[in-house]
Amino acid sequence: MPPALICRINIERRRRGARRLSLLGVTLLGLAGSVSGRAADLSETRQRFVSGDYSNCLALAQEAVKEDPTDEDWQITLSQVLLVTGRYPEAYTAITNALAREPRSLRLRWQAREVFLSNGQTGQAGEMADTILHNAMARPSTYRDSSSLVAIGRAMLVKGEDPKRVLNQIFDAARKLDSTSREVHLAGGELALEKHDFALAAKRFDEALKDLRDDPDLNYGKARAYAPSDDAAMLSAINAALDHNSNHVGCLLLLAEHHIDAEDYPAAARLLDRIGAINPWHPDAWALRAVAAHLTNKAGDEQKARQVALKFWPNNPRVDHLIGLKLSQKYRFAEGAAHQRQALQFDPEYLPAKAQLAQDLLRLGDEAEGWQLAQEVQKDDAYDVEAYNLAGLHDAMKKFVALTNRDFLVRMSGHEAAVYGERALGLLSRARSNLCAKYGLEVKRPTIVEVFPDQKDFAVRTFGMPGNSGYLGVCFGSVITANSPAARVSRAVNWEAVLWHEFCHVVTLQMTHNKMPRWLSEGISVFEETQADPSWGQHMTPRYREMILKEDELTPMSQLSGAFLAPPSEEHLQFAYFESALAVEFLVKQFGADALKAILKDLGEGAEINATIAKHTAPMDQIEKDFAAFVRDRAANLAPALDFEKPVSERESGDESAGGKKTARRRPVRVPPEMWETWAKDRPTNFWVMTRKAAQLVDDKNWIEAKPILQKLIEAYPDQIGSDSAYRMLAEAHRGLGDTNAERQVLASFARRDDEAIDAYGRLMELASESKDWGEVATNADRYLAVNPLAASAQRYLADAAEQLHDAASAIEAYRALLELDPPDPAEVHFRLARLLHRRGDPAARRHVLDALEEAPRHRAALELLLEINRASPQTSLGAPAALSSLTP
Question: Once rounded to an integer, what is the mean pLDDT over residues 48-69?
Answer without folding.
Answer: 92
